[in-house]
Amino acid sequence: MGSLPDETQTNLGLLTGLNTQLQAATQALGQAQSNKAYTESLLSSQEAVWKSAKSGTNPQALDQQLAQMQDQLAALEARYTDEHPDVVKMKKSIDQLKAKIAAAAKDGEETPKTPATTSFEPPQFAAASRAAEQNEIAVSELVKRQEQIQEQIRMIQGRLQMSPAVEQQFKD
Prior knowledge:
172 residues, mainly alpha
């Protein structure tokens, strides 16, 4: 099927169309990979800023970190008993952070109270993370599409290569 001599022109037309589709898919893949790299670099820079603010002595950041740790502790206590190593470790970390906040307050720094946040990461960080995941999905889908087109091209090329043999069989 498809390798008959009369279908050579049709197969060549299909091959040309598939090559055009392959070029378009390759360009789209390049663009998606570029977007993915940009989003990942943006994500890593936001993560670095977030981590530095989280670990710094900024009173607002310390209060936010305390709220996040308390949220984590509540989640851990819902799953485990008070003797569980993760719960004990989180309580110890919270105590250390409270001591750090108290020390910062003693040094004359005023600790403005910020409302407790329930999210573990800032909204921009979460949005960039979702964009990176979407870019990863787009790249994988484009790679699959490119592979499908290449498989179709190989099939059409096989038909074209078999066409002379089929024509010879007809002549015989």
